[in-house]
Design brief:
By secondary structure, the protein is an alpha+beta fold. It has two domains: 160 residues, no CATH class; 59 residues, no CATH class. It is 37% helix and 14% strand. The protein has eight helices and five strands, in the order ααββααβββαααα. It has a five-stranded mixed beta sheet, with helices on both faces. Helix 7 packs across helix 8. The longest helix is centred in the last third of the chain and has 22 residues.
Amino acid sequence: MPNEKTATDQFVRKQLEKIKIKFTEQCSDNPLIIEALKGASKTGDGVGKPEFIFVYEQLGLIVIIEDKRDNNLLEEVTEEGELDLSIGPNSAVSKYAVNGAVHYATHIIKKSHFKSVIAIGVTGTEKNHSIQPYFVSEDGVKKLAALETLVNLSKEHIEEYYRIHALGEKSSEEKLVEDLSITAKKLHEDLRNYGQLKEEEKPLVISGILLALEDDYFNPDDLKGKKKPTDGSRILDSIKNYLDSTDDSTAETPFTWFL
């Protein structure tokens, strides 16, 4: 049974169609979710009917969306700052979009094998709207950063969004920066302890190594320590090869002290 065709419903539906995700409205085609939503009505013991719901089986993740036309009905918290999950005809769960979505999510977490739900409240229209996601798991309820669109829920982006924002894992960029920081620290210590280089000499060595790596014939695995030809001469040869390949025959290099 489709939602009532309010402007907000249409906005959410258009967003979901844009990211090309299969979704259901006010029901689910998954028997386990249907069973979990029994007794999950916002007002009492009836069947819960999320306005929009879809599943990413490979991630064990469910996404639930509840919407309200009025932007003032996004979410309601208690005096303690927690989401009000009281139920009833005029309750926060019935009146507010986020509260309703999280209410359904908690039922699914408790009554099914699904242990990760992104519950989203949407209010307003395409021109003036709010999209507020929460992550619901056995560990509790966590508020996520507000969204402008639902593009992060697409097949192309959902795994990264889920792992970084919901689970709190580091992004590939953050991992790279962390690895580079560790490598740079170790290299700094090696140049100081084994190379006995002065601070002003270290950048020159790093620059030389980077230039050598540009040489197609340079292989770091060929560096053998103190054996001849020395690592310094190998690196210097590769620097020369690279500079020669740039067609700048007049280029001079200050790296002869590698020898």
